[in-house]
Every structure is written in C-alpha cells, then in structure tokens.
Amino acid sequence: MSTTKKIALVTGGNKGLGLETSRQLAAQGITVLLGARDLAKGEAAAAPLKAEGLDVRAVKIDVDDRADHAAIAAFIEKEYGVLDILINNAGIMVDGEIFTNTTLKVTEENLHKTFDTNFFAVVALTQTLLPLIRKSEAGRIVNLSSILGSLTLHATEGSPIYEAKGFAYDTSKTALNSYSIHLAHALKDTKIKVNSAHPGWVKTDMGTDAAPMNVEDGSKTSVWLATLPEDGPTGGFFHMQDTLPW
Q: Which residue ranges traverse the bilayer (predicted)?
C-alpha cells in the first residue's frame, strides 16, 4: 500500500463499532473521516480521539440521504482528492427479534426501511465514492455484514444461527453479501479489494449487553480488511481472518 497517508471514511462512526474502527484505523496513522448523521454527535465522538493525538475528523453523512452522498464526495474531492478506504458500517435492525422467526409477521414498511439503509444506501454511496476510490493506489471497501446473512448457516440445522431468523435484517445482509461478490468481480482488474465483514456478536446498542464480544475485538475484522496488503483476498466473507460460508 502507498507510503503516503491514507484517507478512510467510516459511516456510522460516532458510536459502537464505527467509533472503535475509527480509533483503530487512526492509530495506524490513517486520516479517518468519522461519519455521523448528526454532525454535533460526530464531533463529540471525535473529540476524545483527537485528544489522543489521532487524526480523526467528523463529517456529516446520513447514508439514507442522497444529498449527503454528493456532499461528502465533493468534500473529499476538495480536501483530499482521493479516498483509500470506505467502511460501510452504518446499519439498522428494526425487527428487534434476533432469536425468533419474524417471517410471517414482518411488515413491508420494516422491509423497506431495513433494505433502504442496509443495502440500497450502501450501493448508492459506494457508487458515488467509487471515482475517488479508483484514484487510490490500493482502494479497500469493507461492507459490514453479519453471520446472520449466511444462507448456508441459516439452512443448516444445528448451526449457531439456525434459530435466529429476524427476516428483514438477515435478508438485507444476504443482499449486501451478494453486492460484495458482484462488486469485487466488477473491480477484479483493479487494485481495489471488496469484502464483507462479520464483526461478531458485539456489545453495542444493536448487539446489547448480552453479547460476548467487546467493540475492540469486534472492530478487528473491519480494520484487517481495510488495510489488506496487495496479495490479500477480495470478494470474501470474513470474521477475524476466517472465511465464513455464504
């Protein structure tokens, strides 16, 4: 990868996994644009990182707002001229029932809301920023997925997620995994690498305090994929450095 300082954008960066991912990337000497829907909250989250001497800058990006997509692209173009790392971290879960099957009662409204944020917004933002990522010597795109997007594990009785079938969330992550595969193939003749990351079940607002992992460990997969060397994988689905089944 380039010896010049790299630029990373982390969506949903003001708390949880996004915040810790921003911290870990900045600790590697990367300039991190910490994306938040509410700029004031983003600046509040970035302040202690800056106090640690980390190069972190809060930026406004509501992934559901296409005007924000255009604005952040223009900002990065003006300020840096390139984007080396895009971590599509922002996501939502509206089913709220991880351990039950919501298929029979899921509403169309919840399906649309979940897919709008977890899938359509990711595709739209990535397409908007891709011209800047193409300018990088070694662009990296990391899509925050989940083991709950694995069709193989959902269909395998006795698997760790066999009984966990929150329909809207799970299928949005399956679609996101498909995007990672297709985008990686489309960019296979470039130096850009695209991968899906499963952070693990992490203690966050979404994961709840029942989760066994802390955010420090939960962020490691994203950071690894964001800083892959030239011979690293693309078009894969990983937890830590282990491959997960689609």
A: none
Residue-wise pLDDT tens digits, 71-96: 999 999 999 999 999 999 999 999 77
3-state helix, strand, coil in the chain (%, to 5): 40, 15, 45
What is this structure's pTM? 0.94
Is residue 128 within 8 A of residue 70, CB to CB? The reply is yes
For residue 59, give the nearest of 83, 78, 40, 87 by alpha carbon.
40
Q: In what order do the strands lie in the sheet with 236-239?
A: 56-60, 31-36, 7-10, 85-88, 140-144, 193-197, 236-239, 242-243
The 8-class DSSP code of residue 8 comes to E
Active site residue 169: yes
| C-alpha torsion angle, residues 145, 198, 142, 59 (rounded to 10) | 80
Phi-psi region of 235 (alpha: psi -120 to 50; beta: other; left: phi over 0): left
Give me the CATH topology for the region 7-243: Rossmann fold (3.40.50)
In the set 80, 162, 169, 179, the catalytic residue is 169
Look at residue 48 and give its three-state secondary structure.
Answer: helix
